[in-house]
Amino acid sequence: MSDSSDSESAVPQVDRKVPNILVTGTPGTGKTTTSELIAQATGLSHVNVGDLVKEKQLHEGYLEEFDTHVLDEDKLIDELEDIMSEGGKIVDFHSCGIFPERWFDLVLVLRADTNVLYPRMENRNYNQRKITENIECEIMQVVLEEARECYAEEIVIELPSNDIDEMESNVERVRQWVDAYKANHA
């Protein structure tokens, strides 16, 4: 089924002893909490991209109307390149299309019902424009579609993240997956 043009464009698989995982989703879906819980359960290291962007000034300024920094993608990728090659990282960010496909062995897209997501964003004091845009993104499955376009189908997993029971179930599933990955790459 594949021809030479397919094999030339294929991304080479990286054989790491410990996996890299991307946890993505609309703001408010529980990425950071889930990432921290996965790190505790697996021993992998959590990389919060939003915090890294602020700490290392990997941005081009601030957009007041959206209450967010304007990401400098090149600076971010340069900052993370060596870190990601080591393996054992859980990257937490609301977007996924900027990262090289070779970095990740599993991509988790967290989803939440809008009636759960809206109050979470209100509790964070997001302005109405930011809340509306993020709710529309969740309804339209923007992050899920981006993940499906950017990564191999078999590594993109959609997970519900409406409450603590779902988060704990997700963490347990990922822990089991990480254990199997490590056993297969020992």
Automatic annotation (TrEMBL):
Keywords: ATP-binding, Cytoplasm, Kinase, Nucleotide-binding, Nucleus, Ribosome biogenesis, rRNA processing, Transferase. It comes from the Eukaryota. Residues 48-71 are annotated as: NMPbind. Coiled coil: none annotated. One of its GO terms (cellular component) is nucleus. The keyword Acyltransferase does not apply. Residues 123-133 are annotated as: LID. It is found in: Cytoplasm; Nucleus. GO terms for biological process: ribosomal small subunit biogenesis; rRNA processing. Its main location: cytoplasm. InterPro entries: Adenyl_kinase_AK6, P-loop_NTPase. Its EC number is 2.7.4.3. GO terms for molecular function: AMP kinase activity; ATP binding; ATP hydrolysis activity. ATP binds at G28, G30, K31, T32, T33, R124. It catalyses: AMP + ATP = 2 ADP; ATP + H2O = ADP + phosphate + H(+). Pfam families: AAA_18. Belongs to the adenylate kinase family. AK6 subfamily. Broad-specificity nucleoside monophosphate (NMP) kinase that catalyzes the reversible transfer of the terminal phosphate group between nucleoside triphosphates and monophosphates. Has also ATPase activity. Involved in the late cytoplasmic maturation steps of the 40S ribosomal particles, specifically 18S rRNA maturation. While NMP activity is not required for ribosome maturation, ATPase activity is. Associates transiently with small ribosomal subunit protein uS11. ATP hydrolysis breaks the interaction with uS11. Interacts with small ribosomal subunit protein uS11. Not a structural component of 43S pre-ribosomes, but transiently interacts with them by binding to uS11. This is Adenylate kinase isoenzyme 6 homolog.
